[in-house]
Amino acid sequence: MIKKILALGFLICLVTLMPAQSDVPDVTSTYAITNANVVVKPGQMLEGATIIIRDGLIENVGKNLQIPFDAEVIAADSLFVYAGFVAALSHAGLPKADDKKGGNSNSNVKKHDPPNDVAGITPEQSIRDLLKPSDGSISALRKEGFSIAHVVPNGRMMSGKGSLIILSGNTVEDMVLAENMSLYGSLLPSKTRVYPATSIAVMSKWRELYKQAELATDHEKKYKSAPSGMKRPSFDSSIKALYSVTNKSIPVFFHAPKTLDISRSMALQNELGFNMVLTDVKQGFKLKDKIKSKNIPMVISLGLPKKAKEDKKKKVKDEEADTEMKQLMERAKQAKLAYVSQAALLEDANVAFSMSIKDVKTSDIRANLRRMIEAGLSEDAALASLTTSPAKLLGISAMAGTIERGKMANLIVTDTTYFKEKANIKYVFVDGKKYKQEVKKKKDKKEGDKDAVIDLSGTWSLSIDAQGMQISGTMEIEKTDDGYTGTMTTDMDDEEETFDSIEVDGSSVTLKMTSDVNGSSAPVVISAVVEGDEFEGSVDIANGMMTAEVSGSKVSNP
Amino acid sequence: MKILSILTTLLLVGSLTAQSLQGDVLIKNGTVITITDGIKENTDVLIKNGKIKSIGEGLSAGDQVKVIDADGMYVMPGIIDAHSHAGIDVVNEPTAPITAEVFVGDVINPYAVSLYRALAGGVTVSHAMHGSANAIGGQCETMKHHFGEEDPEAFKMQGAPRTIKFALGENPMRVHGEGNGIQPKSRMGIEQVFRKGFSEALEYQKAWKKYSSGGANVAPAYDLRKQALVDILNGDIIIHCHSYRADEILMLMNVLEDYGVNKICFQHVNEGFKVAPELAAFGAHASVFADWWAYKFEVYYSTAYNAAILTRNNVITSINSDSGELIRHLYHEAGKTQKYGDLTDNEALKLITLHPAIQLGIEDRVGSLEVGKDGDVAVFKNHPLSIYAVPQYTIVDGLVRFDINEDPADMRMDLNPDETIPAFHEIDAHDHHRCMEGAFESLFSHH
Asked: Among residues 443-482 of chain A, which lie with CB inside 8 Å of chain B?
C-alpha cells in the first residue's frame, strides 16, 4: 500500500509545484490587485486601493485606477497587501556548511600555519559561486513573504561576500540584485583547532590582514604608476578581497549575538575603522546606548530562546521550592524575557533595526515575530524591520521596501493582517511574478481525553485523504490480555498488513506498522482520537516523508 | 507594556552604575598599613576622584562622600595578583610555539564572577595572563577589578605597561613537540625557539627601518607576531615567564642578555631559591606560590622557603594565585612566609602589594597607600596576616566594589536564557588552574 501512496503522493506534489516553474509561461505579466487594504509602508494604509503591476514593477497604486485591458485581476476585497519582505541577513539557497572540510584528517595541514580556507579566512568567496537556485530554502522563505534576501556565505572568521538575492528565478543570473556588497565576518575561531583556534588569535588575525590589505593596496597603486625597479605585487585572493573593506566601499556585517561579541567587535571596528553592521544580535538590549551613540546599524536575530514549558508536575515542585530556588527561577524567567523583549526595548530607545533570519527556522519566523510583539514590539516597528529598515540598510530603498509607484513588484497578499496568528498568505509577488498559495484548511486537531475509556476492538472502515487522493480501507482490531492486535487492508493493493503495536491512552490511539517503502522498510504511524464509534486522526509515513488525514467509523463489534 | 517598563527600569539600574570609574570615599579611624611609610593608628584615608587625596587624622570630606568606619580595622593597599587567569574567556592559543601577537585583553569577560570573588579576598588588581602552552605565548592584561561594569574597557588598567607570557619546560614541549611534531621537542628546542624568534624579529625591524628611511620602495610583509617580538626587544613589553627548573631559568637569562632584554619576571620559579643571587644580579623578578609544588615531574623539587630565600637575596618577589581559589586568600598565602622564613609583617605584605606592582610596572600607581596613588584599598577585620583576617571592604579607584554587609548570594550578571534549571555551578571552570586551558584538547584531538 505504502509504495503506491508514496508514488502517487510524489506525483501530486510535482503537479502542484509545476505551474510555478517557468515551463508553463504566465499568460500575462500585468496584474491588478483591486479593492485591497494596501499597507504602503509601516503605519500608512490605503483602504480599497488598487495596485497595478506591469513587467515586474508597480505601475500604480491608488483608488479608482483604470484596470488595464491585459491585466489579470485579483479581486482582493477585504484582503491586505504588504511590501515583500527583505531579509537583512540569511543563508538562503546555500548548501549546509560542511563541517568536515579541511579538518585535521588532512595531515598536510600544519596547525600553526594552515591554508586560509581551513583557517576560516575566505573573504573572496562570492554568493554567485555558491547559490543553488532550486534550493528549498528559497521557496520556503518566499512562502513566508520574503522577496529579497541579503545572503552571506557560511563560515568562520571571514566567510566571504554577501549578495542581494531576489527569491525568484531559475538561474543565479536571474536572482542576483547586487553582488559582493558586504563582507560577513565574525570572531569565530577555525573549526578544526588550527590557527586561529581561539578568538584572541582571530582578533589579531583581523588586525594583521587588515594592515596587509592596506599595504597591498598601496603597493599595487605604486606599481601601476612606476613598475620599473619595483618588486611586483604578489597575488593573494584573500587580501585582494579585503580591499573593498579597507577602502570602506563595503561594510562588514559582523556576527555579534551576545554582549561580549558586540563589545569585542566594536572595539575592533574602533581600532581598524571599517564600516560595520552588527548582525545576529540577540543581546542588544544591554548595550543599546553605546550602539546608538556610535551610530552602528543593527540587524537583530529572529531566533529566540525556547519558550518556557508549562509543566504541571513541575508546578507542584515550584510550590515546594525554597526562597532561593524561587529567586533563581525568577531570574531565569527574566533572562529569557529580556531576549524576547530585545526588539521592543530597541524600539523604545529609538534604535532602528532589521531582522536576520539566519538563526531561525523558517517555520518559526512568524511565531517569533508574534512573541516579540507580545513582549511590547509594535506591529509597525516589526513591519519596518522587515521592509523599510533593511531596504535602507542595504541601499535598495529606491526599489524595494514599500508599495510605491516604480518599485519592484514585491508584494504579500494576506487574508487578514500579517501578524495575526491565523493570517494566511494568499499570494506572493516577487519581481512581478505571481505565486499563488493554496491556503491549507487547518483542521482543528482533536485532543484526546485522558480519562475516557474506549473499546477499539472490532472492524473499522477507514477513509484516508493523502493530499487530495482518497483511499479507503478496513482495520480489524482484536482485544488480547496485553492490549490490542490488528491488521489493516486498503484498496490500494488489498494486502493485509499487521500492526507492530497498538497503544491506547484514554481516547488517544497510536497504531504503528513497518511497511515496505520503495524497497526499504519505513515506519507508518496512525495517531487518532476515538469517540464512541468514530475515529479521526493522521497518518505519518516514513518519519514525515508524507502525511495524510484519516477518519473512520466502526462497522461491527467482534 | 508593563513588562517592558519593568525591564527598562531594570536595565536603567544597570546603566546607572556604569558611570565614571573614579569615586570618592573616606575611610575613618583605621590602622593604616601604608607599606612604604609604616603603620599609622587611628588614621583616615581620603580618596577623591579615584586618587588618595590625604592620609591623616580627623579628615573630613563633606556630606556627599561615603564614609567607612574602620575603627578597629586594618586598612591596607588593595592586594595585587601577578598571576591570574580570572576574567578572560581564552587562556591559550595553543597552535604555535610563538603567538606573541595574541592578547587576552581582547577577551575580557566582565561577567566572570571569579572577579567578584577576588574582590571578596581584597584583590583590586590582577594580571590576567595567557597560558603556558607556547614558548612565547600571548600578551597579558593588567586588570582593575571593576566588577559590576559591563564594558570590558572598564577593566583595563589604563597606562599599565604591556606584558607577555613566556613558558619553559614541559608544557610547550608537550603541546608542540609531542602534540604536533614540531620544535620544541626538548628544553634545548625551547631555547632555539626564543633565539630564532628574536633573530627574525631583528631582521624584520631592520627591513622596516630600511623601508621607512626610504631605502626600499616596497613595504616588508606586515607580521604582527614579529612586530610584538620587536616590541619586546625594544623593552616595551615586560616578560613574565612560566618556569620551574634552575637550569632553564639561567638559560633564559643568557638568551635575554644576548638580545639586550632585561625586563623579566619569572613566574612559579620553584627552583628560584637555587639561583637567587643570579636572579638578583640580572635584575629579574620572581612571582611564586607560597607552598605548592610536586604536581608534575619538573616541579618535584621545591620549598616553602622559596619566597623568603628570594627576598633575603634581594630579588623582588611576589606571591601569586594562578587560581580562582587562591586569589581569595592571598593575604593568607603571604602569611605563610612568616612560618617558613620569618619574614617581617611588612616584608610579607609587600609580597602581595608593592612587589607585584613593581613586577607589572605599576608601582607608581598602586601597591602602597600614598597620597597621589590610586584609591585601591582593602579593609580587614583583624590583621591581614592573621589567620582570623576577614576582608570587609574592597575599594577600586575610590569605588566600593565589595562590602561584606552587602554581599548578595547571586552575583551573576549574564544568564543563559536557555538554561532551564538555574543550576548552582559547583565547579566554575574559571576558578581552577587555567595555565594549560585549551592546550590539552588540542593535544588529544590530534591523536
From this structure: none
| Count: domains in chain B | 1
Percent of chain B with pLDDT over 70: 91
Question: How far, in Å, CA of A177 to CA of A158, rounded?
Answer: 22
- pLDDT higher for B32 or B422? B32
Q: Do the domain assignments include residue B227?
A: yes
pLDDT at residue number A106: 60
Phi, psi of B223 (to 5 degrees): -140, 105
**Residues of chain A with confidence (pLDDT) below 70:** 1-24, 97-107, 309-321, 440-446, 467-468, 517-520, 544-545
User: Does B271 map to a domain?
Assistant: yes
Contacts of B221 in chain A (CB under 8 A): 212
Residues of B with Cβ-Cβ distance to A195 under 8 angstroms: 93, 95-96
Nearest residue of A to residue B152, measured between CA atoms: A263
The pLDDT value recorded for residue B14 is 41
Is A294 in CB contact (< 8 Å) with chain B?
no
Chain A residues closer than 8 Å to B417 by CB: 305, 332, 335-336, 338-339
Rounded to whole angstroms, how far apart are CA atoms A58 and A81?
Answer: 13
Record the cell numbers describing residue A533, joined without a space. 464509534
What are the start and end residues of each CATH 2.40.128.120 domain in chain A? 458-556
**Residue B140 counted as domain residue:** yes
Q: Is B236 on the interface with A (CB under 8 A)?
A: no
Fold of A23-84+401-442: Urease, subunit C; domain 1 (2.30.40)
Which residues partner with B207 through β-bridges?
none
Q: Which residues of A236-274 are buried (b: 16+ CB within 10 A; e: fewer)?
A: eebbbbbbbbbeeebbbbbbbbbbbbbbbbbbbbeebeb
Is B138:B102 a contact under the CB 8 Å cutoff?
yes
Q: How far, in Å, CA of A474 to CA of A535, rounded?
A: 12
In angstroms and rounded to an integer, the radius of gyration of the C-alpha atoms of chain A is 28
| B223/A331 Cβ within 8 A | no
List the single residue in B with minimal CA-CA distance to A110.
B180
Select from B15, B97, B419 the Cβ nearest to the Cβ of A289: B15
Q: Testing the interface with A: which of B2, B4, B182 to mutate, by most A Cβ within 10 A?
A: B4
Note the pLDDT tens digit of each residue in B89-129: 999 999 999 999 999 999 999 999 999 999 999 999 999 99
Q: What is the pLDDT of residue A14?
A: 45
Per-residue pLDDT at A518: 59
Residue B8 in domain:
no
Contact A198 B15 (CB under 8 A): no
Q: Which residue has the higher pLDDT, B14 or A382?
A: A382
B410/B425 Cα distance (integer angstroms) = 11
Report the CATH superfamily, name and number, of domain A86-99+108-395. Metal-dependent hydrolases (3.20.20.140)
CA A198 to chain B, closest CA, distance in angstroms equals 6
Which residue of chain A is at minimal alpha-carbon distance from B7? A338
Asked if the model's pLDDT at residue B188 lies above 80, the reply is: yes
Residue B67: the pLDDT is: 97
pLDDT given for residue A505 in this prediction: 85
Domain of residue B206 covers 78-368+429-446
Q: Of chain A residues 260-289, which have a CB less than 8 A from chain B?
A: 260, 263-264, 267, 285-287, 289
Q: For residue B273, give the CATH number of its domain.
A: 3.20.20.140
Which CATH class name applies to A458-556? mainly beta
